[in-house]
């Protein structure tokens, strides 16, 4: 299938590692011009080097903190100055701070919302003037906990639920401009955090054995890979998904109890 991404310009936040980095790689393989965004220059430089070595294509990066409205505007300005347009915005920057409600301070709440909700808002507000010119796609990465929050997951599940609401309402507000807005809800996907858990819990096991442990209760029987998540994300921002907007797709091996 031709995803029709050749020549598209895409910004991916939180892309120095994990799903963000893998998504940048897949977009690049499909012909998009990708700009990586994260807070730390060293991580971005390594990510760009890795992707360029595997794809043979050139990428750019911008060091920025999406919790800053000024930084968000600077990212989009630099992209437009160099490429003259913006087609795709992928909001991946985030973290997972989960605790019992009584143990969460007001600063914890503010920090989480600043990153996972207002970080999206800053980037979307900065990108909208460009996206409205020719249409495009916005993709927000969140977690299945945003749909079905378990106990002891404040503030992360609350900010993720707010992000899902933002995604849905934006899809309606921006549809007249041919801007599609979707989300993906991530379940257990191999990441640095999951690998640390593996080493702490079962260092004697191989990754494949650990990933297939029945304790994870994943219907497909294993923890997912970052490439599997990146492939879905790439499809959703491509023209192959031109009639898909306002939805939140679970990437969780079937484990979420909600649609």
From TrEMBL:
Q: What class of enzyme is it?
A: oxidoreductase
The UniProt entry, under Gene3D superfamilies, shows:
NAD(P)-binding Rossmann-like Domain
Q: Which domain of life is it from?
A: Bacteria
Q: Which InterPro entries match?
A: NAD(P)-bd_dom_sf (IPR036291), SDR (IPR050259), SDR_fam (IPR002347)
GO biological process: any one?
Answer: bile acid metabolic process
Record-level Gene Ontology MF annotations: diacetyl reductase ((S)-acetoin forming) (NAD+) activity
Q: Which UniProt keywords apply?
A: Oxidoreductase
Spell out the family assignment given in the record's similarity comment: Belongs to the short-chain dehydrogenases/reductases (SDR) family.
Report what the protein is called.
Diacetyl reductase [(S)-acetoin forming]
Q: Lineage in the entry?
A: Bacteria, Bacillati, Bacillota, Bacilli, Bacillales
């Amino acid at each position: 299938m031709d995803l029709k991404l050749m020549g598209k310009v895409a910004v991916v936040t939180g892309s120095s590692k994990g799903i963000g980095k893998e998504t940048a790689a897949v977009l690049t393989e499909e012909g998009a011009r990708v700009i990586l965004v994260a807070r730390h220059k060293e991580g971005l430089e390594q990510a760009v080097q890795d992707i360029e070595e595997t794809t043979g294509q050139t990428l750019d990066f911008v060091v920025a903190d999406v919790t800053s409205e000024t930084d968000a505007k600077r990212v989009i300005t630099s992209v437009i100055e160099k490429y003259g347009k913006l087609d795709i915005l992928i909001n991946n920057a985030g973290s997972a701070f989960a605790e019992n409600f009584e143990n969460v301070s007001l600063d914890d709440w503010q920090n989480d919302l600043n990153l996972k909700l207002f970080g999206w808002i800053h980037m979307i507000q900065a990108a909208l003037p460009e996206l409205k010119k020719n249409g495009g796609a916005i993709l927000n990465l969140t977690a299945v906990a945003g749909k079905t929050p378990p106990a002891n997951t404040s503030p992360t599940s609350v900010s993720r639920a707010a992000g899902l609401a933002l995604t849905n309402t934006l899809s309606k507000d921006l549809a007249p401009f041919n801007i599609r807005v979707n989300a993906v809800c991530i379940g257990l996907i191999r990441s640095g955090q999951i690998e640390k858990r593996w080493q702490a819990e079962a260092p004697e096991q191989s990754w494949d054995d650990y990933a297939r442990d029945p304790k994870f209760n994943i219907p497909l029987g294993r923890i997912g890979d970052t490439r599997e998540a990146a492939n879905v994300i790439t499809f959703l921002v491509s023209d192959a998904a031109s009639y898909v907007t306002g939805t939140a797709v679970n990437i969780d091996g079937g484990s979420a109890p909600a649609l």
